[in-house]
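Exercise 3.2. Students should predict the tertiary structure of the chain below and write it as structure tokens, then compare their answer with the key that follows.

Predict this chain's 3D structure.
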Amino acid sequence: MIDTHTTTLPRDHRWVVVDVETSGLRPNAHRVLSVAALVLSEDGTVEREFSTLVNPDCDPGPVHVHNLTRERLAGAPRFEDISRDLAEVLDGGTLVAHNATFDYGFLDAEFRRAGTSLPVQKRLCTMALSRRLELDVPNFRLSTLAQHWRVQQLQEHDAYDDARVLSEVFVHSAALADSLQLPLPVVNCRGRKAVYPDSVPRVACDWQNPGRLADAGLVQGMKVVISGSTTTPRLTLAARMTDAGLDVMNQVSRQTSVLVCNDRMVQTGKVRKAMALDIPIIDEPQLERLLAEVRPGVPKVATVVDVVPQPVAHIDTPIVIEQPAAPAEAPAPTWTLAGRKPKLWSGRRVLLLGGTHLDGVLMRSRITQLGARPALNFTAAVTDVLVLDGGHDDKRMPRVTARQLPVLTRDDVDAALERGVVPPHMRLEAQLSAPVLARGEVIDLPAKNTSWAVNVAWKAEAVGDEYDVDVVAFLLGPDDKVDTDDDFVFYNNPLVDDGVVELTVDGPSEQCVRLDLAGLPEDCHRVAIAAAIDGDRTFGELGAVSVSVDGDDTTAATFVLDAGTTERTMVLTEIYRRAGKWRVRAVGQGYDDGLAALVARYGVEVDEED
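Answer key:
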């Protein structure tokens, strides 16, 4: 049993739990409406608080979600008025937030508008921590985790109450991670090495693309690309166009409205493509004249989804808990794969200890055939442990014994495959879970859900300076090539089409590609998601990679890819259209060459003269 109120948080961090309420989803276009920051002491109690509404003097957005009307915000301070006090609370701290990329991004943008910088170097995402722990929950919403840890939630989407709830969720989760000897998923916010050069940072545009430049001039929402040298520094020129409501892109595509180039005789790749597509080309003086009179565009309509709070029980006393049961009101999903009956070991998580790399590859494949999911780490979800040669000497065996987990042998797995035998010492109860795909296997995604997150993770203990893993995505047309380099999603280009596809780095061994399938362009037939290891390290050294395709309420499919040996890049999965449906394929195709060769296969080009 774990008493989270007597354990201590790791002392090498100053933990600051943060929550923000915002007028929308994009930091560069929307604003912070309220912010709360709670500094935690070593025992997990709150030692300092900061909380305030913020008046951004703009449309507050989804009032039905956060209840922050213009009238409520009218008397609140502006962000620049609170920035110094908030910076003092955050200074030197590790920011803890639920979907930390979101909160960090908004605070970073607000501090920049205030003429200063966010004094945070590290952050921890509690969604990533919950996934690493493999908690037995149907989804990773804050309200769901509050029920799981039996934390009372008083007012959902209130910055202070959400921060209070999250602080308790974090303390419980950190205690469980400590008991499992799992490192916390802390990431550096700055200073990461770029994996691919990007000339102009992408900023989401609030206006619909009206098409090509015509005699009437520029219209907000037009997609503009710059090629070659400019009199005004390129980033400054791009910022001016963005402020005018134009959508500044890095590469020419069929959707490009106009190309800015001072010397079209210099045949850069962008100029050649613009000419081939009959895209207008103007020089910088022409652009300056057109920028003086940019016509209003048509706003994009954002879809806001109501979040209905779930009822929670009132708990007044501390809870001593190890692994709570899932809430009774959340029924277990009843997935089947292509109409098949659940397999013999469906719902089980099996951790392998000992054995060689080839032993592990073989036994994980057999475990998958039985319907179980191979576990990468010793987590709260592990139901059984398969011990191979040398596994009894593993440092995790004392914890396996303490939790009284069934210990399986190679013979148990073979008997289950060959004769359908369930070992007598294996607990028969196991919740049904999402299908576990074998390499090459395919499953249809439920049509009712168009928003999916492809979560990629690898063994937490393998993280270190020697492994620099990058997850990337490609939006592919009928020819299995990108239409433009902007359809290549990676660390320096994490956002496509206002978040239709978005990459987030949630931990040192967790990265996520979020997709809105309904928002993908019609000519995008396939999204390929891959991973690359920088330097000379290989997937054989990194070990197994776990992929989970998660919707808002449940998981559609999971699979583990561990057949890598000398490969430095690997295509993990593909999500593609087939007969009006979206499908997921577990791929696991590896290559010995690096990221540059991988992106070239998908048609990504970089012209140094551009």
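Discussion points: Confidence is low (pLDDT under 50) at residues 1-5, 192-198, 302-341. The longest strand covers residues 581-591.
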